[in-house]
Design brief:
Elements lengths: L1 E2 L35 E3 L1 H4 L16 H23 L3 E2 L2 E2 L1 E2 L12 E10 L6 H6 L20 E5 L4 E5 L15 E8 L5 E7 L18 E5 L12 H10 L14 E7 L9 H4 L14 H15 L4 E4 L31 E4 L3 E5 L2 E6 L2 H9 L5 H11 L29 E7 L3 E6 L5 E8 L1 H4 L1 E6 L5 E5 L5
Parallel strand pairs: 5-6, 8-10, 11-12, 12-13, 13-14, 16-17, 17-19
Antiparallel strand pairs: 1-2, 2-15, 3-4, 6-7, 6-9, 7-8, 9-10, 11-20, 15-16, 18-19, 20-21
């Protein structure tokens, strides 16, 4: 595990930072924090998200990641299928397992295990996007492309693929998305399709015992989508947030900022940069918003320097941040932070997206939001909390990658497979705050949180590390 040391006792940085060592000699008055809680990165999982030593080649095919996903999840699905149907007899027939999708026979009751693929007629075409020069655009997260009346559900394995059909399939549509691995009980029809009767999933992985038992309230702050631009007219909410986190503001909703022991910036900390400012030509097709590319970096750098004097911070990459856009997104490079890089990694720690933490015995899994946004576009339902619950049952963070979600072409592993059920699971940059306490069949209990975009809602989330209760704090005027 990578343990974050206590917050550095620093005050200010020198103006000529690139030419001289920063001046940390003077002291400032900062709020007292409890630094006794260990904030660890779980390197067992996070090391798999680092692509630096994996060849960095995008010339390879993506078939390997699907093969590895099926290889990792198939035994878990087979176990679920065996538990559900192993002793089942229907109309005098004992249910049999067909190891290959092409081994099914007409009229013979059996179950198969494979990867779901949704043949969606309205799915965007990446070739058309590139042709139209929209390839840098982040798709609208509120758009739905699915139409279950016309979409085709297919299951495939190493041997081939077969179309799923039957009225029983309709009750599972919310649980089906491209890339998830499932088991299907049914029989082949005369048309060569597979009529589904029941479905099973890997279900949730094992969960470690939870450890914390604090007498006083200790909070983890979760914030995302700050979209800091550096403009002189930056919203007052950012300044209020900074004062609250530094303990300079009176309590809000009976919550004192000094009780916050750690903060996670869950992606999109930087505002989007106007691409036309880099080329000198206006392009109305571009999505970027800020005209001067250096302003967001300078503003974020300054804010992190101030906040890090008060509490340790982890900053996760997001789709608008200056790092790789493909998942897993790599940590922000320290060279971008001229003021605060002396505090890396003692008080500021850039991390991958996704990322795993162990904070005082609480195991936490966080994503920047792209995974849930992409599932939303192609899933039948609209409840994002339910979609996060489904990813736990699928044992996969990003099933739609690489089909509709850009990802690194891993060859010998699928790092997005969930090998352990976390105690807390959050997704950043969501339209609104939401939470649930989700329970698994084997006693797992997970606090699920959608962290709202601060730039749109003015809200952050505080998680009580002892009770795992969470609340939303608003800095928007009139809210």
């Amino acid at each position: 595990m990578n343990t974050m040391p206590p917050v550095a006792s620093l005050s200010t940085t020198g103006g000529d930072y690139l030419l001289s060592e920063p001046d940390f000699s003077s002291s400032v008055s900062i709020a007292k924090r409890d630094t006794s809680i260990n904030v660890n990165l779980i390197e067992e999982y996070n090391s798999e998200f680092i692509t630096k030593n994996k060849g960095d080649s995008y010339e390879r095919q993506y078939a390997s990641i699907y093969f590895m996903r099926l290889a990792l999840l198939k035994p878990r699905v087979c176990q679920s299928a065996q538990d559900a149907w192993g002793d089942m007899i229907v109309a005098g027939q004992k249910v049999q397992y067909a190891p290959r999708a092409l081994d099914i026979s007409p009229g013979k009751l059996c179950y198969i295990v494979g990867t779901i693929y949704l043949e969606i007629t309205s799915k965007p075409n990446i070739l058309e996007e590139v042709t139209n020069e929209f390839w840098t655009d982040v798709p609208d997260t509120h758009t739905k492309f699915t139409d279950r009346q016309h979409d085709e559900v297919v299951i495939e394995d190493e041997s081939g693929r077969v179309t799923l059909t039957g009225p029983a399939l309709s009750k599972y549509l919310d649980l089906l998305i491209t890339g998830c691995v499932v088991g299907v009980l049914g029989s082949e029809t005369a048309e060569g399709q597979f009529e589904a009767m029941q479905l099973v999933f890997p279900e949730m992985a094992e969960q470690k015992a939870i450890a914390p038992n604090y007498v006083e309230k200790k909070y983890l702050a979760l914030l995302s989508g700050l979209d800091i631009s550096g403009d002189e007219h930056e919203g007052i909410e950012i300044n209020l947030l900074k004062e609250f986190l530094m303990g300079e503001m009176d309590s809000i909703d009976n919550t004192d900022g000094t009780n916050i022991v750690h903060a996670i910036f869950a992606g999109n900390t930087f505002a989007e940069v106007n691409a036309s400012s880099l080329s000198g030509q206006e392009d109305p097709k571009r999505r970027f918003q800020t005209s001067e590319p250096s302003k967001p970096v300078e503003a974020v750098d300054k804010m992190l320097t101030q906040l890090a004097l008060s509490m340790p911070i982890d900053i996760m990459s997001g789709p608008t941040d200056p790092t790789t856009i493909t998942l897993p997104q790599q940590p922000l490079h320290p060279a971008q932070f001229l003021r605060s890089r002396a505090l890396i990694p003692s008080a500021i720690r850039p991390v991958t997206n996704p990322c795993w933490w162990d904070i005082g015995g609480v195991r936490i899994l966080g994503v920047g939001g792209q995974t849930i946004d992409d599932i939303y576009k192609y899933a039948a339902g609209t409840d994002r909390i339910s979609m996060m619950e489904h990813t736990l049952r699928w044992q996969h963070i990003a099933p739609t990658a690489p089909d509709t979600l850009w990802s690194f072409p891993f060859q010998d592993n699928d790092p997005f497979v969930i090998r352990e059920t976390p105690h807390v699971y959050f997704a950043g940059n969501q339209p609104e705050f939401g939470t649930s306490l989700y329970s698994g069949a084997n006693g797992q209990l997970i606090r699920i949180i959608t962290v709202p975009k601060f730039s749109e809602t003015g809200q952050i989330v505080l998680l009580d590390l002892s009770s795992l209760e969470c609340s939303v704090i608003s800095f928007k005027a009139g809210v």
